[in-house]
Amino acid sequence: MRAPKIHKVIEGSELAKFGVSTPHTSHCLPNNTVLISTLGDTEDNSLGQLLVIDGNTWEVTGLWTTGHKTANHGYDYWYQPHWDVLVASEFMVPYSWKLGCDVDVIRNKDMTGHSLNIYSWTDRNLIQTIDLGEDGMIPLETRFLHDPKSPQGFVGCAFSSTVFRFYRNCDGTWSAEKVITIPKVKANGWVLPEIPGMITDVLLSMDDKWLY
Question: Which domains occur in the chain, in start order?
Answer without folding.
Answer: 14-195 (2.120.10.30)
